[in-house]
Amino acid sequence: MKFIFIIASTMLLFNSTVLYAEDFVMDEAMKAYKANNFELATNLFLTDFDHLNNLGENDKLKAAITFSKNLKIYREIYKKSLLTQVTYLETLVNSEKNNSSAYAALYLAEALYLQGDLDRSKTIYGNIDQRLIVNKSEIKHFHLIGALISHQSKWMDKYVDHRSSFNINNKRDQLFLNYIDIVLFNKNELTLEDLSAFILEDQQQNNSPHQNNHYLLKALIALNRLDLASARIVQLNKQQPAFVEQLGKTKVIRFYDLALTHTLSVFYYEMSKTLFEKIKNHKKLGDIAKFYLSDLELVLAKKENANSYQNKVKRLTLLPKTLANTIEVRSAAHGFLAGNHNRAYQTLKQAVDNLEKDPLISADAVLMCIYLQANCPTIVKNARLMAESGTSKRYTQLSLNVGRYFLSKNEITKARRLINGALFKSDNNNLFANDPILLINLAEIKRLNKNYSDSLQIYFSAAKDYPMIRQIQDAVQGEYLHEQRNSGIPTVF
What we know:
Layout: H1 2-34, H2 38-46, H3 51-54, H4 57-94, H5 104-115, H6 118-126, H7 136-152, H8 156-164, H9 171-185, H10 192-204, H11 213-222, H12 226-235, E1 243-247, E2 251-255, H13 258-279, H14 286-299, H15 306-312, H16 321-324, H17 327-337, H18 341-353, H19 359-372, H20 377-389, H21 396-408, H22 412-426, H23 436-448, H24 452-465, H25 470-484
Antiparallel strand pairs: 1-2
């Protein structure tokens, strides 16, 4: 009897410890969430991936929303990273002083490809002197980018040549080939056994977790092995460049794997979606989960299920008022993706015209224009007038979203006025306690107005919480140094 009591007591103690650990993780994650540090919050969840399945439905919902927040921030980091890196890399390629870089053109061609500027990407790539690409990993990188550009350009002979440079019997080369197949054909050829072998080899050889991590993560996500991807991401040094080129004794150039940021955003999308799916049939929380599943589709502007979601969101009834008020806007956005443009524009315009009732609804309408990459001049014109006339904190999000819209259209003067207005309306005494998306866009506005020191200060501070921002920070630093003609000082780009 005493023995049974000891076992029961031990089990009770063990279960209490597990419950305490789970409560501690949730509490700390929510503290980070409230401080707008969604990166830390998601990392806390990922360090003990298995406990996510043991969370109650309410906590699962909180975790899922946290992952969706990080998805949106990573999407913003990715967009700004492409913009700043293209500017910086063009400076390196075109500047007579810096044209000794053998790799700047390769990374510029890749950045332009990722931006969707295939013509410029082809031109830059075509002018690369392949003989200067001597680093073994960068030779592989050269052929990988060449394969992507060639296939998109319908240059099938060149595409085959680049593919044939990889040895199908080499494990590392298999990762490269598989990455090409995923990007071009959405087809993953590697098995879990293959990927487990790659991970084990890294551990045995004490390789840096950064090496090949992007190609490995891409394959793990394609296999829906988010647990293994999570373990890899927790180890990842997100500030680490993909390649460092040494130029002389005093200068190095750091090049970054820009597509990795996008892949990480896809991971956060999948994590969020998986958790929402687990609670979408819950009696009380199901409608909220379905709303956020709809939101994920809009963030990525997915068209596949747009027709279905257009009707689904209108049937959601058990929602908080803030979400319920945006139902018509969200339904219209899905309708836009399904091809119903005129009707969508009418609904979004009505949301803005009813601004005085609730500026958050109008802010959501402008946000849909951003997500959909739609031209909304009339909608945004009215939203701008109201955003600039509104002075309370309730107008912060509207000012920010209108500013982001103008920034996406390269209307810098208007964007600066609105984004600065959003900062003022936020009424936050601590600049860096603001929404990370506000900070990232504020820093970009300052860069475009050549206020580099303030831009860098914001990026430097933001990078403490979001290490992926380091790639933006380095690009702005390089652009700044070039502008100042300050190359006489030992420089880290």
